[in-house]
Amino acid sequence: MNILITYSSKTGNTGKIAEALKAGLPLAHLKPMSEVENLDSYDVVFVGGWIDRGTFNAEALEFTKKVKGKKVAYFFTLGAYPDSDHAKDCVNAINTLFEENGNEILGKYFCQGAIDPKLIEFMSSLPEGHVMAPNEARIKRWKDASTHPDNNDLENARSFARSIIDTI
Q: With the C-alpha atoms ordered 34, 36, 38, 43, is the resulting torsion angle positive or negative?
């Protein structure tokens, strides 16, 4: 079975998850999306990105449009808590992207990831009352996110990768 793990990563969070997936599937090919030229030879494609505005980031969105009629698993990192409504909305959006192209979704993995410091700096400059301005809960989430992905997240990613292949 020919397996591809490909990803887009801005701050390194999603790259760490991709590496963990590779550790769980040592025979898989690991490539950043920018280096993937052809998907024809792959039986299973793991696609990873980071969350931007409720879905995959722009590079991952563009790549996903090229994935058609494949067995796929996907993964992502996000600054929100994994059990949040925002995370659920992201799952729904990404499922739709793959389903629209006739792909069979084998599974998904996602975890919290440290937020880009530039984004935190920008949000910290917003006026009080702005929907994205710092508040006690948001500042706590930023702090919590700063420790992820952690070793537990990486082990869960390795286990996820093995479980996907075990079901085929």
A: negative
Crossing angle for the helix pair 13-24 and 151-166, to the nearest 10 degrees: 50
Peptide bond into 149 cis (omega under 30): yes
Distance CA 108, CA 161 (A): 9
CB atoms within 10 A of CB 145: 21
- In the numeric block, which tokens belong to residue 98? 């793959």
**Assessment of whether the complete model's pTM goes beyond 0.70:** yes
Q: Residues 26-84: pLDDT tens digits? A: 999 999 999 999 999 999 999 999 999 999 999 999 999 999 999 999 999 999 999 99
Number of residues in the chain: 168
8 Å CB contact between 60 and 32: no
Cα(152)–Cα(130) distance, integer angstroms: 34
Q: Coil, helix or strand for 35?
A: helix
Return the exposure string of 147-167: e unless at least 16 CB atoms fall within 10 Å of the residue's CB, then b: ebbeeebbebbbebbeebbee
pLDDT tens-digit readout, 147-167: 999 999 999 999 999 999 998
User: How far is Cα 160 from Cα 146, in angstroms, rounded to an integer?
Assistant: 23
Residue linked to tokens 């085929």: 168
